[in-house]
Every structure is written in C-alpha cells, then in structure tokens.
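Risk register update: the risk of archive-format incompatibility is retired. Evidence:
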Amino acid sequence: MLKILITCAVKEEFFEIKWPDTEVYYVLTGIGKAKAAYRVAEAINHVQPDLVVNAGTAGTIVHQVGDIFVCRTFVDRDMAKLKDFGLESEISTTSLLLDKGLCKEWGREGVCNTGDSFLTEESTIQGDVVDMEAYAQAFVCRDKEVPFIAVKYVTDIVGKNSVAHWEDKLKDARTALSHFFSVLYDKI
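Archived output:
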C-alpha cells in the first residue's frame, strides 16, 4: 500500500483525497519556509511516506487565475539573491520521482518560486507560480530521500490585489484541486 503525505499551508486549502490502496496522511504546515520545513520533517519521521505532495494555492505574474501547475522545480527567491556567493537556490525533485516511478504524467509542468514574503507588487522572478512553503518542503524531502511534488492552483495575479483575490478564491482552489486529484489516481 502506497503511503502519501499531503501538505497544505493553511486549513482553508485542505481537501480530502480518497484513492484505493493508498494511505493518505495530512499535515498543515503553516505559512512560511521555517514552519513548513519543520512540520514536513516531523511528519516524514512519523509517517515514513512513499511520496509527499504539497497541494495548495499560489500567485502568478504571467498566467491566469484557475490554472493548475505541477511543480518539480523549486526556486528560493530569498536565497537566489545570494547565488553569486555559491549558495543553492534551486532544487529539482524530478530524478527521485522518476527513480520511484511516481507522478510521471500529472499535467502542466511549472516552476514554483518560494519566499518568506507575500508578493503584492509585480517583480521579476523566476517561475510560473509563487508561494511561501514549497521550496522548504522540497529541500527536506530531498534530504530525507522522499519523492516530492507540488500541485498549485493559481488564486491571484501578483500586483493586482493579491491578498483579497487569494481569500476570495480559496473555495475555487479546493474544488479544482479536489477534482484534479480525483481523476489523477490512475497516473500516480
């Protein structure tokens, strides 16, 4: 039986996944990289999952509200400012997913840009979606050799009243992500 750990930042993003022959565990990480890293590490130690899936909301600069992206590449926008000093700021989780034969055909690929600030103004960033937790989770999972993937529903366009749009779109995000995962089982 496959054990999957589903992570969401806040309870408003939570929805249930029911897949046959699968044990699904959930953890609310809280907002921000430090909380997410700590709570995912604790959950991995407790559950020992075969896969960690971050399912949640994100903003974007170049795409549309309602788009869903499957992310295997993660950028830490805070650390990217220091990459000239040789510090890591990008992680790909693709190889471990492929090694385990997981999540091969999950949909529209994207890059998730993570930082400890809620972006409210348009800026030049690398990635399709922005959040505040996924990079930290990818880092922990890589360190613990657990496959990781993030599925992000775009709730807001950065620089266009992002906070209000995020709050208004949470129900839509839960509904769309629930549907996405309900039709995905055959492709795990």
